[in-house]
Design goal:
Radius of gyration: 24 Å
Number of domains: 1
Largest sheet: 3 strands, mixed
Order of helices and strands: HHHEEEHHHHHHHHH
Low-confidence stretches: 2-22
Helix content: 55-70%
Length: 257
């Protein structure tokens, strides 16, 4: 009987020791390259839905938006611009005025959004805002705040697709905070000031706020009236270009399906 009790006691000690020695799964560092890979996986998910305009079929369309993007990124103030493979995707959707920035340098705009804008200066303002969100790491920080780093790494490596739709919903449905949006507005304004009549940023937000149908992207951000008041002092004290490029933008819109 004593031998049996002694054996049972030894087994308990061994089991306790085994549990204590089992290490927890470490949280791995999520790097900039991982963000770029995650952005690629999300882009694959979005393009697989079949509504993204094919760059090979809409060469003139994408050539225009990429030229505007390059003009914006050429300005000072971007710390990560050379690290991303910046990509604009145009989603064929004439009903939803939506624009959003994903992670890793990807920006998505619907055809309804592009038709809503009046000129290239307004387009540049919207584009600059999204580039700032990515460059300042706000887009990836929003995703990391809502998802485990190990899960994001699995998605980035392509070893798992579980949770990819949830990450997509975080990107498109979770709002940024007031301070992030205000600071991004100011930096976006500075990014377009040299090449464009930058008070179009002000006019664009003012028009969006005044119209009965609010563009859906504004639902993710603080009210336009708050954003306008933040920009007002900088606009009044700035000396920006007077260029709108209205005709060039109209020609671009005519290339949309």
């Amino acid at each position: 009987m004593k031998i049996k009790l002694f054996s049972f006691f030894i087994l308990l000690l061994f089991a306790a020791s085994s549990c204590k020695d089992t290490p927890e799964q470490p949280t791995l560092e999520f790097t900039l390259q991982d963000e770029i890979e995650l952005g690629y996986q999300i882009d694959e998910y979005i393009t697989s839905q079949g509504r993204v305009l094919d760059p090979n079929q809409f060469v003139q369309t994408y050539s225009y938006v990429n030229a505007v993007l390059a003009k914006i990124l050429g300005e000072n103030g971007y710390s990560q611009s050379g690290n991303y493979n910046w990509t604009i995707r145009i989603i064929e959707d004439d009903d939803s005025i939506i624009g959003f920035s994903s992670v890793g340098g990807y920006i998505y705009l619907t055809t309804a959004t592009l038709r809503y804008l009046n000129n290239e200066a307004e387009f540049a303002a919207l584009l600059a805002f999204h580039t700032v969100l990515i460059d300042e790491m706000h887009s990836i920080e929003k995703v990391k705040a809502n998802h485990n780093d190990n899960q994001l790494l699995d998605l980035a490596l392509g070893s798992s697709q579980d949770g990819l739709e949830d990450v997509y919903e975080t990107i498109t449905e979770t709002s940024f905070g007031q301070s992030i949006v205000s600071n991004s507005d100011l930096k976006a304004f500075s990014a377009i000031c040299y090449n464009y009549k930058a008070d179009q940023y002000f006019d664009f937000l003012n028009r969006s706020s005044a119209e009965a149908i609010t563009p859906e992207w504004l639902l993710l951000h603080p009210s336009s009236s708050t954003r306008i008041s933040t920009l007002d002092s900088q606009i009044s004290n700035s000396q920006c270009s007077e260029d709108l490029f209205t005709n060039q933008y109209a020609d671009f819109v005519s290339t949309l399906p």
